[in-house]
Predict the 3D structure of the following.
Amino acid sequence: MATDVVELILADHRKFEELFRELRDRSADRTTRLGELAALLVAHAEAEESEVYAALKRFREVDNDEVDHGAEEHAEGHQALLALMEVTDPETDEWETKLEELVENLNHHVDEEERTLLNDAREQVPEDRRAEIGKAFLEARQALLDDDCGDLEYVRRIAKATADRID
């Protein structure tokens, strides 16, 4: 199993893209897919902030402004996720609109993070340290998944708790 934190984050990003494709499919079980996305998205973001961003800030070659910006974009993602989850009927135009808002928000974040923060980490953080950070990321992410972090009430709490990060 890979433990390089950069590779682990990239794998989650690809999973988000896969889930978005499934959520856009009107014949799919959108409610189940949304639950999967919510759990992975919240667990990923929270573990990334607690284990990855905190560790990357210790490397002076990694841009701290990019780390802080990533946390701000996570807060925006939580808001967009909550807005989608609060639409009860996945067959409505409102649901489709909220899905596209979430997709746009997350794709922007993923693109920026991959071009800046993850490239910096790959170049500036030694491989053994990336593996240590990756292990901590996996453990934190799994603990959040075990805590049912994709539940609507959990998402409401996290969206409220992080709302002050948004400019």
